[in-house]
Amino acid sequence: MSTDYSRSVLLGGRAAGVTNGALLARLRNSRVHLSAEAHLPGSVETLRVLVCNLRRWPIQLSVDPGSRTQQLDQDLLEELTAAAAGIDPDRPLRIGPVHGEALHLHVGTRPPADASVAGVPDGHGVRLRHRGHRFPRLNAAGTGLGAVLAAATLTGEAFKTVAGLPAGTFVRRPVLDFCPVLPGEQPGLATASLPRLDRVLLGGCGAIGTGIASILGLLRATGELAVVDKEVFEDPNVTSYSIGTRADAAARAPKVDLIATHLTQIDVIPVQGTIQDYIERVDAGAVPWPRLVLGGLDSVEARHDLQRLHADLTLDGSTGGPAGTTLALHEALPTGPCLRCYFTADHTAPSAEQRLHQATGLPLQRIARGEQPLTEADLEGLTDEQRQTVAPLVGKPVCGLINLIGLTGEPGDTYRPSAAFVAQQAACLVTGAWIARSSGLVTGPMRRIEYDVRFGPRPDQMTDERLPSPGCGCQTDTRLISRIRATRGAVRQARGL
Ligand SMILES: [Zn+2]
């Protein structure tokens, strides 16, 4: 079996407005070439993440080994080759000069003349320059957070070109400076480090959760981290998560174990289960009641469960939008705004079955017999247009059509457009907010920060200060919430957690 590119192709196809087949052909013909200045702090980490991000597309990928003083270490080149092969053994990373036309990305401040764009971490942030624009002096040594952000931002620039986004649907900003700890300030000014992990829970080990884990690893975080997720790691995750290989997918490793294995310097408490399972263990005194919750969940219901932990602070990361290119951070408190204030349950939205009915004209009674394969007879009574959509799917079970024709967005529907480089930017906002709040660099109202990778972060227009919603449970049930918090605090102390 070959590497499953379905999720990244779905995201690219939607953003480019072309069929998945057309995008796949375009990606296979695209060449991306990388070079790096290994002596700059954080640049090797940036290159590592960048190679893996780009290997998550079926493009042709090469790395320049450099020459003389700028030569990349042989061990590093072997490590990069192995990391790429872990994602797609059939598309080996090529080491050497580029042949033919390629998009050249450079990690560092002195790009070669043929590089289109260069990026580098500056402290916890990123600086990016297109050809012809010089870098200023860097303020600080690049950190692991800055490295992931630099790699994700460079990947975003490559995405615009290799996916062939139509004019008007994206912006190429020749100069980009961004710090996820202090949005609006120059990168490298905020140098506070991540505190030691103490009573922290990572809720959800998907695209965003593995992005957060990847940053924690590169920041060399220490302490104790509880992680909860009910699922196992599977093939489609290889091209949309920041951690995990084809071998991990073949072994169907629980996602929580994948993160525990990756974070060797942290005491990870893996809990394979739902958020509700974790809450029950908290109340039984079996696991620590978290003070801080980092959320990387993809459904409204799971977010509401996460809020029921009533932790001191919840930092929720999300990705979404029609093409999956939008990402956001939601800061939440037990006293409000809580995650219920941000995410209201929508009971009026049509179900996946109803949307399949609208998209195909297939009767709801027929859709209810989901396991039975679609037959020619089912096409009778459909319009020509509906027939065109449905005819290629004859022979497949009806329930599978919801995924095949991309009717996504329902709870429980796992076929969403998703890409590691988008989720990593959400993870950077979450980690940046954590550093900012724990060090007192940011105080005051809870924030919602959101941007679209096609346009990049815009510090002047991406942040809303959020007030609690008047009718929300966090406002109407304040006494109940403080009683639950007091009880959990007492259980925790009694158990010494
Ligand atoms: Zn609320």
UniProtKB/TrEMBL annotation:
One of its GO terms (molecular function) is nucleotidyltransferase activity. SUPFAM superfamilies: Activating enzymes of the ubiquitin-like proteins. Residues 199-353 form the THIF-type NAD/FAD binding fold domain. InterPro entries: ThiF_NAD_FAD-bd, Ubiquitin-activating_enz. Keywords: Nucleotidyltransferase, Transferase. This is ThiF family adenylyltransferase.
